[in-house]
Amino acid sequence: MLKETKHWFLRFDHFKEDLQAWIQKKNWKPNVLNFALAYIKELKPRAITRDSDWGIPVPLEGAEGKVLYVWFDAPIGYISAAKEWAELQGDPKLWERYWLDEKTRYVEFIGKDNIPFHAVFFPAMQMGQDIPYKLVDDLPANEFYNLEGKQFSKSDGWYIDLDSFFTHFQTEQIRYAIASNAPETQDSEFTWKDFQSRCNADLVGKYGNFVHRVLVFIQQKTEGKIPQSKQLDPIDSEFQEKMKSIVSECEKAYGSFQLRKACQHVMELAQAGNVYFDAKKPWKAAKDPLLTDSMYTTLRCCLECIQLLALVSYPVIPEAAEKIAIMLGLSPKDFFALGWKGVIASPLQEGLHLPEPQTLFAKVEDDVIAPYQAALTSKAASVPKEPIPVNTNKISIDDVKKLDLRVVSIVAVERVPKSKKLLKVLVDLGFEKRTVVAGIGEGVQDIDSFIGRKVILVANLAPASLCGVESQGMLLAAKGDMGLELPIFSLSSPGDLVS
What own/partner pairs with CB < 8 Å and gap ≥ 24 does 343-350 have? Predict the structure, then answer.
């Protein structure tokens, strides 16, 4: 039933030009910038009031029964909260250091559904004031984070019980798994197998393994004391340069709010340490008195790497980083108070006796995650599935024979620009290679996982241009509740007929 009502509107359309000029100068993530620019292009007057008995009443004559729309009122609270804080500090003007000082760096961390309010509406509201309020500098909005191919939903039972989650797993494992798979530019998902892999392969196999093997070796071969670095061989100098390069890249990643990339660099540094340790073989040098100085240099370089590893991982896994500081004979509070550049410039104390090393991370066994996987599988099976009606438009066997279905091997995959689901796929038919544009990329983080798979191609489909790329066929996939799934062949060869 419709009824007439009266509302107050803000003329956002009057701010189009100012918003476009302001936002086009921003070096924001493409998903945020493109979303905001598209929104500004279609900007229209928007109601800022609602008919409700809940909310902030509109302080105008004739506005009885009207309240401010929550997303008009909420961001104003950012400023009023700062004013209230300033008064509590005994300096009512203290808030101006943040909201009226152009030198302030103002960052908003939000989800993608809040982009229009923080990238368009609130800046326009600020532009409409006589007071020069500080506009947002960076807006690193993330996309959606799903669970095993579906949106989290407590009402549907599709969720992870947090009490149980934090009881069975380390907080650091959970922080790292989510940060290293964050939905920064597109939706990503939590899966139990991926969680297990990141915990075991990264945290245990690379990070924890490197720290533990070096510190245990020092306990055994140098009486637990930090050795003095002797003359550097080329391999030692190359390792030190590699460390500097990785740490620099990690700093850039954090500075641009790219946690996934930062996590990759953390593990790259840990793996570089493992490779260096294996290449130098200090266990062999320990048996030859003539190679003692070389062994000391190796261990000293490895300790420098561990120190840097604590630094670059601190924002994501702070407890592990603090444990490393302690194992290096340092005070975590004093160590991290040095800041990024301070830690890099702070040499380890030669001769310092190190405490016994401790294991940083526990391995996640199959039997631990099995109940969680089973619970989701059971829940998915219990949800009634609507049958998809069979197409009643009958075709003849001759129509079927017109299709040339072939087994093909996927050679290379890349995303089609400006599309979440389209992938440009190079396939091998055994006697030739073709490019196919396939809509199978949405929700898939590791598209390289498709490489090497043998799948089905409709080989005689007329070529078509999709997003500027010519597609020379079609890949067949099943569409289920968990998304699209490619059929996979193991015994067949590229070029074999499918019938």
Answer: 343/307, 343/308, 343/310, 343/311, 344/247, 344/308, 344/311, 346/307, 348/226, 348/300, 348/303, 348/304, 348/307, 349/226, 350/226, 350/227, 350/228
